[in-house]
Amino acid sequence: MPEGTKKLGVLAIAGVAPYQEQPGEEYMNDKQLGHFKKILEAWRNQLREEVDRTLSHMQDEAANFPDPVDRAAQEEEFSLELRARDRERKLIKKIEKTLQKIEDDDFGFCDSCGVEIGIRRLEARPTADLCIDCKTLAEIKEKQLAG
Prior knowledge:
By secondary structure, the chain is mostly helical. It contains four helices and two strands.
């Protein structure tokens, strides 16, 4: 997320200013769907650029250091970068799934109960597919199963 990208005190995601709802506006109208599509595409593009930068960095910096400590430090750095890129790869898949939901006119509604997720929640997490209540319940169940 670009630093300093603010509007009305709220950080913009992927350089796109938060959506300003109009009174009486229909939920998930074409304007709102276009807004979230723009956010998701910009976010996906940022992640892809980061992947390209990492690949380029690793190719440029790859060296066969004779000193085992230097070699280990480089391998650890690359390992951390690859782990971060793997998380981003998974996020790109989730973004693409969400973009498909926009195309299928199924975006903005909870996958579990069908209620509106809400503009503010989607601004914070554009890939959200559960309303806050269902997400909270899912997290409680997850903690119970893990504990």
